[in-house]
Amino acid sequence: KEPPMKYHKKKGDRGNGGWTTKRSFDGLVRRLLHAMMTQDTFTVVMGGHSAAKGAGNHFRQSYMMQFHKVMYPVFARLGVKLITRNMGQGGMGTIQNGMGSGSIYGDEVDLLLWDSGMTENGNPEHIDVFYRQALLAGKRVPVIWGGPFELLKMLHEEADVDVGQWGEATDGIIEVESAEQAKEIPWAARFLKCKPEVQNLCKDEPRFCAKCWIDRDDGIKPEQKQLGVPAGQVKWHPGWRKHQLVGRNLAFALLEALQSAVNIWNEGVMGGPPLEDEYWHVTDYYENIRNKVRNLDKSRGSCYKIEGSLPTRLCNTPMKAKTQYTPRANYDETALNSIVKPAPDGYVPKNAKKPLYEGSDAHNTCFDLPDDSIDVFNVVTGRRQLFNDDAFDRLPARQQEKDDILTPLHRTRELEDGIIPGKGWEIWDEPQGTCDGTYNVTCNRWTGHNCVLEGHHDYRGAIIGNEYSGWLVMTLNDLKEGVIILKLHTWHTENESTRTEGWTSVDNARERRRLGESLVQRYTTEYFHDSTVEDGSWERELMRSYETPDLPESFEFEYAIDGKVTTLNKEQFLKEKKQIQRVVETLTILDDPNFTKEGKDVEIAIRLKGSGRSIVFGVSHVYWA
Q1: What is the SS3 assignment for 477?
Q2: Torsion sign, CA atoms 524, 525, 530, 533
Q3: CA pair distance 281, 295, nearest whole angstrom
Q4: pLDDT 10s digits, 335-391
Q5: Burial class (CB in 10 A: 0-12, 13-18, 19+), 403
Q6: What is the pTM of this model?
Q7: Distances (CA, A) of 119 to 511, 520, 583, 585
Q8: Would the pLDDT of 440 be above 70?
């Protein structure tokens, strides 16, 4: 059914279970039947902000992980592997990952949730990019839940996209009337709602139950002083009960669709298998949606409002991406440093952070239930401990100006001596572990972390360097459409480039010559930088400046595409760099549909000049098509 009018409002009542349309519900059922018939995966992904990711809670207390814990065994009994990704990132929207959705969120997404209202509701064009890239760039075409109703309605009516919105499921929650009566309310629902006269009872009940460290029986102790509780326990972040409720609301929606799928399957095979193709085949279904999205008129939706800040071909061209941000799907394959060309001595920036321990965490009472409460997990597993958390823990962890004044200074040339990868680039702020947003992996048990048990995957990793770092060279595979966009960090500080400490020239060559060392002699030892920050600067992530510092007049930013170098002076660079959202700075270095007639691998490179060690930039994402 179409949602009631009150749910059309951007800030309407979401106290119910949510809404969808019949056609969209049928589309969800089709995808579930396909997974059941092929014994394949079913993947649910959420892109969102800090509240959505579960800030202040343990990662596994977030609503996506609570959904997964309940639904994983149900899918398993149907021969389907459920993959659930919590891709939330604090203090950010979704554009940074949405531009490369098919790579970063994964190319086999069946259900995609947008939950970034606090950080992105004022940017409908970026939400539209999030939607369209997800619909175009993967092997599957997902159902989309969440976001501006008018965008969802347009995509549903004009491109046959399956859409919906989940609710907060509070309408049916029993209100607390007194402390004594609260004891009669089921543990999971207790103190979620209080009558006006006893609001203090809900306020006094701790919303969070999360710990940074619990002493272990094996005697392992943290090397870094631990916080008392995870960061983010603020009034706008929901606690564990609210996350659990939303997760179970999502589970009920999927259970309803699964019931329909099972009924269709049962009725369809009564005369003997197999089930008729019309119920579960998806190839033509997907292609119809992709073609309609690709050919939407520019006046429809908000996507083409990105003109002037981003290439409008993002609205109809599937992009690829690499990033050092986490979480990211296909963790190693999607990493930005996986496409970095080695320096002559073989050096490539790597994350060498080590875990404090392997195996299970210490027992955490925040996950315990009172004796008289209902254990939903045991119910869905038939009261057999087939999928307990410890079993999860034991799984392996692999998983371009028309200004006549500026134009002459916008120099393009061919390098005479080629582009040699530099040795001064390093990985910054990428966590330890395989942080892909899923339940089963462990993330950031790093020896230098100050909250080892929180388990969150959300970090703004980048490959950083300065003038002395030399060229950062990367290879982009199968570029066809002539689009390349860089996402930069222009705000790093000198002390964060630890690899070039003490250097006075590119690759410190001047110092090596002074000392009479050969290049080979100096770099025979393999170097891995672990980005260790002893002063706990990760705690100040939200407090630090994300503004581009004052650049010296001598500053130049150079980039190369297949050996052809373009130089931007300070004024040009600041003009061409676009600040599209907070902490999202992009530079489009190629937007030419005639760049190539067929797909080919393209080598790109960047470097800083005229700024020594004082200016440190990072590259966090590269997008191309």
Answers
A1: strand
A2: negative
A3: 23
A4: 999 999 999 999 999 999 999 999 999 999 999 998 878 888 888 777 544 444 444
A5: exposed
A6: 0.90
A7: 47, 49, 11, 16
A8: yes
